[in-house]
Amino acid sequence: MFSRLILIVALCGLLSTPALAQERQWNLQSTDKQTFLIFGVPNTDDVGFSLWCEVGKNQMSAFMPERQVPLKSSEKVPMLISVDGKQQALRGLVTKDAASGQLTVESKFGLKDVLISRLQGGQSISVSVKGHSTTFPFGEADFAGLLSACKGENGN
Q1: Rounded to two decimals, what is the model's pTM?
Q2: CATH number at residue 59
Q3: Around 102, how many Cα atoms within 13 Å sit in the side-chain half-sphere?
């Protein structure tokens, strides 16, 4: 009986390995009008954080689902973004995602904002909403590609 239990546990572990092996990574995606730099699991709805823009609008948005603190839809909350320890305070708007029902926080900032220069070459980014902080690796992110697309330099 005990050896059968070990076999079942081992088999369950093997069957679940492909799902567990998928890790969040940075991915740059574009449409004709928008560009997204997403930290999530490719080909899923799993998004930890994203930066996005409408091409040629001189503005970028920071977007993050937030499940750890109590929020209300339409609430405005402080969103503190730190890049390699250098902080930038933004104002975030809480919205409810229609597809998932999950609450998200989004802040907008200009392409000439000091945050843009901090993000260029940044190695880590931390986002804090109502005291809950989440840190993401940023060294592999194609921020230069996002910025170029936002400015309309990619022929979009």
Answers
A1: 0.83
A2: 2.60.40
A3: 15
